[in-house]
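ugh finaly. both done.
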Amino acid sequence: MATYAVPSLPRLPKAKKRQVLLVANGDLRLSANQRCWAAQQKMEYALTAAVKAGGYDLVRAHPYKGDEQHGFIGSQKEGMCVFAGIDPQAPLIVAEAVWQYSHHLLHGLLSHEGPILTVANWSGTWPGLVGMLNLNGSLTKAGKKYSTLWSEDFADKQFARQLGRWLKKGVVKHKTDHVADFADVKVGTAERKLGEALAEQLKREKAIMGVFDEGCMGMFNAIIPDHLLNPTGVFKERLSQSALYYETTQVTDGEADAVRRWMEDRGMKFVTGPNHAEQLTDRQIRLQCKMYLAALRIADDFGCHTIGIQYQQGLKDLLPASDLVEGALNNSERPPAISRDGSRVLYQGRPLPHFNEVDECAGLDGLMTYRIHKAMGQPVENTLHDLRWGDWDQSGTVKDYVWVFLISGSAPPAHLIGGWAGASSERQPAMYFPSGGGTLKGISRPGEIVWSRIFIDDGELCMDLGRAGVVELPLEETNRRWQATTPQWPIMHAVTYGVTRDQMMARHKANHVQVAYANSATEADKAMLAKAAMAEAMGLRAAVCGTKKNGASW
């Protein structure tokens, strides 16, 4: 009889009765985990007290790491070690006060058998809700059941009631009666015909999505599998950021300096200094301008209709951040990019839609938005934003709840008050970007927008769409919101029509939201419905969220 080296697995510890385990997922970057640990610790103290008040004990499933000075799970390998040693039946809370890399613990959550609750703080400074939304979208894509909660201080009655329900039943649900299936929405004949015709054109002629390395910052939800993407007519060209780095080195100083002069001639302001470690330098700007030309040349080589640069791990150690590049790419009016042989202007007079953080769901959405808005004579510039945070307007100017849509720099100048003249470039935080690089910062102009998000649920591509208005707030209130988030980034003050804060959080399956302006409320309504019709004809399951501007249902 043969003898084999059969592994002997240790017995897993059993959680005690009325004991809840806690895991805290973090960033891959040590500097970010150290900087954010105090906020996480404060959240955990409050959450522990709330669980205790509900009659249960909250116990950390992994220790504070004294050598690293934080208590986050900081990598996928660490996460696997943590989950290999915990009771798979225990109720589990994922507590997030910071941005987190979902793949660090997705493996463990997928195999966990007990009830799962994702919880975030409500803070702009410490963006746990952004990290939690990404994790929620990733779990939804993976088909894993979970519950989710959020709170400003974890002491309010609503949070205590919902937490108590989860502790007792393992499930907490939120009302999403603001969501209507697109099949139940009345659509004009012209808008439906346009959406269907554009979908048919895309399926027949095809389009190329240029992807500079997939999987930015652990965003599993931001990767569309080929078997779901290809039936829409879109196919990936898998590109490498090493190729982008090389191409950047091939652009001459003179070409790059011409790009900067073009921006400055139109009023763009660069906030520079001599200290590379903490300030935006002329050399960093020159490299960003080189990357701008390099991205367009590579996109032209492969015939890309949209591109996404990962820009974080890897590239951040070689080049300045790509945010200035991304904002310029998303704008119709931008510095001319000449082909290598000098014979052509690349993508002349139009944007090359760029999806920040190589979020492919945003890339598909951006391509659809560009084509719908172009056909309807609406502004074609669009971008994703982080669904970063929200608050009531403390100036009293706007009575509605005002969201802070914020992104690291990919917002096009056409979205900003004053356009290029209203834009500035400030150095990205050194904590994340050791090689520096400037943003494309500004305040989004007031107007009517369509918001949307593509996500994956139950093995299908889905799209939520809604309407919102961008409002103008006093500069003091805008600065308060900037200082509470990331003041180097472009900001949008958005009021979502017929969708409350908690309804948005309950339904939204991503950290990102796509936005595009229209010329009026009526035209925005039509553009949204045409895009929904296009999505349906492409095979996506579409839903309309909220109401029209006047509160009327769809």
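ok and the 2nd:
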Amino acid sequence: MIGKYIVTALLLAVLGAGYATAQESGEAKTAAIFWGVKGFPQDLIENGIPQKSESIGFTVSDAHKRINEAYVTRYGSTTLDMLNFIGIGNEKALAEVINRHPKSAAFIPLTLFSYKSKGVDSSWIGLLAPEYMADAVGLYDEALRKQWIDAFAPLHAMIESEFKPTMIEKATYASVPDEPIYEITYPVKGEIAEFSESFQEKFEEAFEGEDFIIAGYRDIKGNLDALGIENNYDAFWSYSICHFDFSNHVFNKIPRAGLFAPCSFYMYIPKGEKKLYVGYPTLANWVTVLGISDADDMAMVEEYHNRVNGLLEGMGGQKVLMTKTAVIKERKPIELPKGMLNTSYTVQNVQSADVVKQLKAKGFKVLAEHYVSEDASLKTLLFTRDDLIAQADKATRGFAAVLRVMVDDGRKEAIVLNPEYQLRAFMQKEADEGAIKKITADVISAFANPQITIADMLEKEEIGNYHFMIGMPYYDEMIPVASGKSADLLAAIKANGGKSVLFDLELSKDRHLLAVDLGRKVEKFVYKTGTDEALLLPYLVLIEGDEAKILAPKYYIALMYPSLSMGEFMKIANIPGIIENSIKKLF
């Protein structure tokens, strides 16, 4: 802990001011590559490069050349001498990735994009970087990610060999957007072949009815079958969609936006599942990669994003929660040093339905199930019991009444908050050793073989008096968010918060503990601090007497992430203030 106290006065000034002046920083990564040459080698770009792509294993499924001429015909003018979208894919090289991570087909086919602007003596070929595509579809398994990236290396090498670029430019990004892929599911009724044909007809009719153009179709399962590759799907295909009015507006102003055109929609039915998954890369990717900031352009992007989603949902689908945290970490047991107390335990081979049953068997009641940042892999269950409530029913101790466990049903893994850690922190000097021992034993025994695998821990004797560093708040330095009669405060937060108020736990007369969903835009900070301890959300509000208050976020976040460094804390410099203001608005 000593290192945390050796800080400069400047840092303290920034922290003390609520982090408002700190800037987020992230390492710039390559989102797209553009190869350029002087002049206009049109035939090489439109024919030579695509033909050479096929010679190295890529297949051209749809080639849309000289779209600029179509703009002149339809709209009377264009800023471009050349605009080409050529769809390419390589199912043979990507078979294992497709089999194990079907969302990767959001970029199958990938657009081999080229353009030349009028009055500029240079021509360009562009591709999305494989690393960006992998991040966008949540492809974090190391082996699959390597296969994905390696599959595109020959394509990049061929472009450089054949095109002989004299200029190379890159678009960069720090992180993918909040929702890089939109996904929705539909129940499969009847025979697979008949359902697939019927759905394709409905999809085409819906989109063509809104002036979208069906620019391509790729039978991914058919291609895998033709290659003799066993696959996990009863059906798998993709569509390429574009809209001329939208593309004319955007590409004539920002030609490099053609990287994302036409937009690919993947559609697949896993074997035996009787469910069709449909997804596509959202227009938010355009904003991230291209830095679109013009108000009119942003408004148009949002309009078309909503139109596409409206069409998909209008066909009777159910939107899927995003799953952004697909990183598979190797869980190895950690030996707890003497005198230290761990924040949490990890449990394998468990799912949320089992957790609820196991907790109920120990007398606990599950109050709420919450998807942190709307992420399907971060499901937090909040639970309590009468003896917990009795312990917490004291002035400013109410936050101790609720315990937590986070379950990833996909990985069959749970992260259980250590009750002793929370009770020592929140009960302070009123911590009852007997109650702590009983409650902790009952929670831990509800799970089979809980292990310490996460290196977040504090000295046991330090927890009750914990703060992150000099100038940072302690437990009892809570933040008032509203004042008034308790009944009026309860009525206000429930009326204003609506469904974001997940429960109201009455501890005693005029003392209530509530949990609030802060929404994805706020809760996404857990991707920067680390999702292992994302069970700190949803946030709790304590109403007692004539005041509503919350734990100071600078205290609470640090308590839940005790291994967080100053640099890591600075990456979420604005979050404490945002949390405070978000909850105040509920009153």
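summary for the 2nd one i guess: Residues 1-26 have pLDDT under 50 and may be disordered.
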